[in-house]
Amino acid sequence: MKSIGGKMSKILLSAMLALSIVMPRSALAGCEVPTVLADLTRSEVVAEEAFAQMNAEGLLTASTLARTRILPCLAQPLSVNAAAGFHRLMAMEAFINNDEPRAIAEFHAARKLEPGYAFSTEVVDADHPLRALYETAASVADGEAEPVYPPIGGYIMVSGVRNAARYKATPVVIQVFGPGDVLMETRYIQPGEAIPKWSDNPLGLTAADLGIKRSPLKDPRPWYIAAGVSALTGGVLYAVAMNERSLFEDPGTPDGELLGHQSSANTLGAASIVAAGTTLVFTGLGVGFQVHFGAKQPPTLSTEAYHAP
């Protein structure tokens, strides 16, 4: 594509500089100036006009600003349509840079979000190679699903959809929200790039979200009781196994009964070992629950126990 000048890129850059004068400072890390969705939409419009005029410089200027300055400093939640527009912009950038696989992946992401969108013939001719890539993108694979790990008490927006799945072969825009719907950051993540973990909790769910107030298994006594029953059972099985073994070794036992006593001794002996292992497991669980959940409550004063002399 041949450039006809940098007029459009200069206009966009001037608009961004003007915006930096009138907008307040942003709380987002690394952002001196917050941006809004209108800035992102304007970048797509400028890029399409540059593409229609075969202005590669103007298109790349618009796409670079959108990717490196506007998107990371968004102070608003990203809408689905705005996310689709950003992916189309990245696809045009990839096309200009002769990166067809990336262009197809970006178009695929855009089509998932806005399947009814069609390029105007004023921007892309009916027989233009870019339109062919757009059609090809409809049938490519999403890739393997990847879980999201939002901040505790927060959530993640995946290309404008709350807590949606992210697929590894599809580029996405991730927005991270902390408690109180506070927008923490916006990230553009390309295929093959792993999503950072903002916590160790998939989907950010807590026990309260699931309706769980307190686990009934915190009391160690049931585990100790189970351990005692298992120990008793193991002891009985071991005693019976030893009796079967003694009968097997007794010279007076008829030969026809030896195989039965041997089998019983082996089976009961193995069962007693299993019971012993189960006893250890239950005992360990009891000790663990007592250590973690059985701490004594701090002493309290009660007037009922006080009697005046």
What strand line-up does the widest sheet have?
3-2-5-6
How many strands in all? 6
Count of separate DSSP helical elements: 8
The ordered H/E elements are HHHHHHEEEEEEHH
Low-confidence stretches: 1-27, 295-309
Task: Offer a quick outline of the entry.
The protein is an alpha+beta fold and 309 residues long.
Give structural notes.
The protein has 309 residues and is α+β, with helices and mostly antiparallel strands. Helix content is 50%, strand content 8%. It has eight helices and six strands. It has helices spanning 7-22, 37-52, 56-70, 80-96, 100-113, 129-136, 221-249, 255-293, and strands at residues 145-146, 155-158, 161-162, 166-167, 172-178, 182-189. A four-stranded antiparallel β-sheet has the order 3-2-5-6, covered by helices on one side. A two-stranded antiparallel sheet has the order 1-4. A hairpin with a 2-residue loop joins strand 2 and strand 3. Helix 3 crosses helix 4. The longest helix is centred in the last third of the chain and has 39 residues, at 255-293. The N and C termini lie far apart (102 Å). Mean pLDDT is 77; it is low at 1-27 and 295-309.
Write the layout of secondary structure elements.
Blueprint: H1 7-22, H2 37-52, H3 56-70, H4 80-96, H5 100-113, H6 129-136, E1 145-146, E2 155-158, E3 161-162, E4 166-167, E5 172-178, E6 182-189, H7 221-249, H8 255-293
Primary descriptors:
309 residues; disordered N terminus; four-stranded antiparallel beta sheet
